[in-house]
Amino acid sequence: MNSELPRYVNPAWLHAFKLINVFILIVLLINGVRLSLMAHLLALAITFSTAGLISVDLWSLHFRRTPFVNKHLLPGVILFFSVLAIYFVDSAAFMWVIAAFPFAYMRLRPPTALVLCALTLAGALVCLVLVWQFPFTLTLRAGLAGTLVLIILYSFFQTYNKLNHDLAQTSELLDNTLQSIGQGVIVIDADNRIKVFNNQACELLNLPPSLLSTKPTLPEVVQFQIERGDFMDFGEVDPASRAYITSRGINVDEHIKRQYVRKDPRGRYIEVQTNPMPSRDIVRTYTDVTKYQMANRKLQTLFAEHRVLSQSIIQKTQTQLLDAMTALALTRDNESGLHLKRTAAYVRLLAESLGTYGRYSAQLSEKNLTLIVQAAALHDLGKIGIPDQILSSPFQLTDQEAALLRTHTTLGETILVVAAGSGTAPNALFHIAAKIAGAHHEHWDGSGYPRGLAGLDIPLEARLMGLADAYDLLTAGGGSQSKALTHEAACAEIVQRSGTQFDPDLVAAFIRVESSFRTTSLELHDDIC
Question: What is this structure's pTM?
Answer without folding.
Answer: 0.44
